[in-house]
Design a protein that fits this description.
The protein is of the alpha/beta class. About 40% of the residues lie in helices and about 20% in strands. About 55% of the residues are buried.
Length: about 500
Amino acid sequence: MNKETWHQRAQEFKVDGRALIGGKRCHALTGAVFDSISPIDGRKLGEVARCDAQDVDAAVATARAAFDDRRWASLPPAKRKSVLLEFADLVRNHAEELALLETLDMGKPIKYSLAVDVPATARCLQWYGEAIDKIYGEVAPTGDDALALISHEPVGVVGAIVPWNYPMIMASWKIAPALALGNSVILKPSEKASLTALRLAELALEAGVPESVFNVVPGDGSVAGAALALHHDVDCLAFTGSTRTGKLIVQYGGQSNLKRVWTELGGKSPNIVCADCPDIDAAVRAATTSVYFNQGESCNAPSRLFVETSIKDAFIEKALAMMPAWQPGDPLDPDTIMGAIVDRVQCESVMAYIESGKREGARLLGGGRRAREDSGGYYVEPTLFGDVAPDMKIAREEIFGPVLSVSSFTVIERAIQEANDSPYGLQAAVWTADLRKAHRVARALRAGTVHVNQYDGDDITVPFGGYKQSGNGRDKSLHAFDKYAELKTTWINIT
């Protein structure tokens, strides 16, 4: 589909921003709404229900009723599997609609909404559907006088709060394993990008997920999100977002019913390139692509680049040569690879970090300006800083924008030390042809995922999450089931 056709479809698109509670689309009980503004051009897409604590109460009540009557939880795993597989197929069948919603709502290029976000969402739903009837219990090795069975049971009502940078993918990472196990789910999407979450819930109903099992309550994080986290009848909460908000969410869990709270939070991932890197061009492509992809709005973006001094100048020269390809363009043009920042507030935050870098003495090597301002949208050039000291704000704080900071090192131990000198520990990378060095550095880096001679290698089969203030628990892989299940022992005397 060409740019003109996408624009035509965008103009014809009608937004339904009502919540979905108890299997029905509905307005917030107060009637309150907020405007959904497209970062592409600043136009109003429609109005979205501004749910509050009353709406969260209603969603929790209907989710609890659905869990207690076992309309979903008691279905054989093979039946839940068939529903989730149908859900995945419906996502694929509505790929263009969902991709357009995602791009209009949060600004990413339609190229990637269609080729990355929709397929990844469908793959996640399919994978957990296929996995659920392959999870076995255990028999403990007791004496002959007893039989001890160890089984997994759904935890109950699961709250999920997801961010705006990958709205569909992040939602699927929570809802797929939670639904597969038989839980009821209440999803609170980001107020900056709520539209695909609401459409996913409709598709879930169409696929056969029973009414009230999957609910979506859009609204402000400080109101609807807080109400969900504080609710005494929510058994588990899964959150992806900033570390600052994550700390509040964990406190809310303790202040209420001591619900388990799982957090996937911020990152400031280090990328270490040694002089014996086996392919410097591949390292440069990975360093730029992984930071500028999705407009830099990725928690795992390797925004701290450490390059060995002897190859630093050549590396930077190659990186600067690649940056023109990442100039922001029209997100509805299939040739565009970098789109719009999600909204004005985030755009201003990114620009403030760029100004901070210049003020603190980092050397601006490329970019650093707003782009496409005549569009009415929010765009920032790909930005590259050199001579970045470890105590600068741009080296320590998560920017969540297309900003790459470069430092140099001569001794690998120093690079490791600076890489680990961060409150975050989500991902990291090392580039070297020395296998022993690769293993040694990978073991030393304090991160949930360490890439060797690549970045962004990924699959639903591997866990995603971090150390330190990057959160706890893991999304993806079979390990995600642990978050949404109770482990029960049944002890039977047989003598």
